[in-house]
Design brief:
globular; 207 residues; 34% helix; single chain; alpha/beta; 5 helices; seven-stranded mixed β-sheet; binds guanosine-5'-triphosphate; binds magnesium ion
Length: 207
């Protein structure tokens, strides 16, 4: 029996940004993608996962990430930071280009293992998030849920928001998608997430 050496996420390196899916031709490693409403905390989560301060750029200004950004982790897997959906402050035409890029990537990537929908645990369920989850279900895109910002409100509020979201999901999915509860600030759930990713990579390498 062979075991893949453990994955050190701190060795993640920015690989490339793509503005067209056709450009993504040279990658063979499984891709773990992250998406969500603008400002949900995607870049912060990727930085927490990789113990970096600013590998994925974070900002308080929505709409910062506008390309498909690939990060290599030890030539074993890729983390993919996708553009946020649902910008308010970007022109409609630009928004359509992002949406097309996201759609094309999710439907056409040969190596996408899962796309994690990041869901803000500090607010009640948002329609755009549920629509995205439903779209993944309809198109058989493998999707998981990562609740973010679990530190931001009182735990009772956070619990109620997450339960409400899962209740909505149970109407859409026969089997609930894999779910993680995280905070980039307190690092809650980050290790659980990295261990899960590592397990998936191991099971691909040694089914
Ligand atoms: P775009 O790339 O602009 O779509 O945003 P993003 O989803 O990458 O969000 P980003 O990581 O830039 O974070 C947005 C804001 O949320 C920043 O002000 C972060 O400091 C804050 N934030 C991110 N994660 C957390 C968290 O776990 N807890 C709290 N309280 N705030 C967070
Ligand atoms: Mg970002």
């Amino acid at each position: 029996m062979f075991y893949l050496r453990s994955v050190n996420f701190a060795n993640a390196k920015f690989l490339r940004s793509y503005s067209l899916v056709e450009q993504i031709t040279d990658n063979k490693n499984p891709e773990f993608a992250f998406i969500g409403r603008s400002n949900v905390g995607k870049s912060s989560l990727i930085n927490a996962l990789t113990s970096k301060k600013d590998m994925a750029k974070t900002s308080a200004k929505p709409g910062k990430t506008q390309l498909v950004n690939f990060f290599d982790v030890e030539s074993i897997l890729n983390l993919v930071d996708l553009p946020g959906y649902g910008y308010a402050k970007v022109s409609k035409q630009k928004r359509e280009v992002f949406e097309e890029l996201i759609t094309e990537y999710l439907l056409r990537s040969d190596n996408l293992f899962i796309v994690f929908a990041l869901i803000d645990a500090a607010i009640p369920p948002q329609r755009i998030d549920l629509e995205f989850m439903a779209w993944c279900g309809e198109h058989r895109v493998p999707v998981g849920v990562i609740f973010t910002k679990t530190d931001k409100k009182k735990s009772k509020i956070v619990e109620a928001n997450m339960t409400a979201f899962e209740d909505e999901l149970s109407r859409l999915f026969e089997h609930l998608p894999v779910t993680f509860e995280t905070s980039a600030n307190t690092k809650q759930g980050i290790e659980t997430l990295s261990e899960w990713i590592e397990e998936q990579v191991q099971s691909i390498a040694h089914p």
